[in-house]
From TrEMBL:
Keywords: Metal-binding, Repeat, Transferase, Ubl conjugation pathway, Zinc, Zinc-finger. The keyword Protein biosynthesis does not apply. It comes from the Eukaryota. The gene is LOC116815109. This is RING-type domain-containing protein.
């Protein structure tokens, strides 16, 4: 008799006798095969995915080496949950972190200082926010500053600050006051040590061995020196991996890019 899997039932893990493509361990053991074709021990898969979450990554990707480059194939959370050795506590922690990261990365919420409800800003370039919940719950119009979280003071709708004392963009302060450094193994000198990702605006301190950085929030790789997307920087000048870029060294940033997600 042939049995058919229910439509919503997850497929069973597929085990193969191959080396662990995460750790490189080639001991003769059965390991689980992932959707990209690479194999891993459930324990090393758990450890790798936990490390990605600890670094702030929202998505899981395969680190297997393929001719000197990472595979990079994305694994869904259901696939990871099915194939990794997750305890109930692990699973709860994974899902809580994923939910928290998703809310942070894909939505822009802050607490209204008047009604204490969480509000999502519609115009990402406007600091003057009208709380629709104050109007619906209390019948009053309440405006507050998205930057300092105080009742709005001032006329107009500026994108930099309101007129409350001390209202300033802390991220811009960090960028303005960061130290300069020479990029390791590079001809590039006096580069700002902290940059705002040119795609999503997340602040990143340079801790790498070359000038290219993969943003832990939007996962876009960019050049820390010229602030171009890595593939554009590499295309601009052959052999520019460690050397000067075709474009000049970008100065300290005075604006934070706004991540418009579609």
């Amino acid at each position: 008799m042939e049995f058919f899997r229910k439509e919503n039932e997850e497929p069973a893990p597929k085990f193969v006798r191959r080396k662990d493509d995460i750790t490189g361990d080639d001991e003769d053991l059965m390991r689980v095969e992932m959707s990209c074709g690479h194999a891993a021990d459930p324990g090393s898969l758990t450890g790798w995915c936990r490390s990605l979450l600890d670094q702030g990554y929202l998505k899981f990707h395969c680190p297997a080496d393929v001719n000197g480059k990472k595979c990079g194939a994305e694994w869904s959370y259901p696939e990871v949950r099915r194939n990794a050795s997750l305890t109930e506590t692990d699973q709860r922690n994974f899902e809580e972190k994923l939910a928290k990261f998703a809310a942070k990365y894909y939505h822009d919420y802050k607490e209204c200082p008047n009604c204490h409800s969480y509000v999502e800003r519609q115009d990402l370039k406007n600091l003057r926010v009208v709380c629709i919940l104050c109007h619906s719950l209390k019948g009053e119009v309440f405006e507050f500053c998205w930057q300092c979280l105080k009742p709005w003071k001032g006329a107009g709708a500026p994108s930099e600050r309101c007129e409350n004392v001390g209202c300033k963009n802390q991220s811009l302060e960090v960028l303005a006051n960061c130290k300069l450094k020479d990029l390791p193994g590079s001809e590039i000198k006096n580069c700002p040590s902290i940059r705002a990702c040119p795609t999503c605006g997340r602040l990143i301190e340079h801790m790498e061995k070359c000038k290219y950085i993969i943003c832990p929030q939007c996962h876009v790789e960019f050049c820390f020196a010229c602030l171009e997307i890595a593939r554009n920087c590499q295309a601009s000048k052959h052999g520019a991996y460690f050397q000067y870029c075709a474009k000049p060294l970008a100065p300290k940033q005075t604006q934070i890019p706004v991540w418009t997600q579609k």
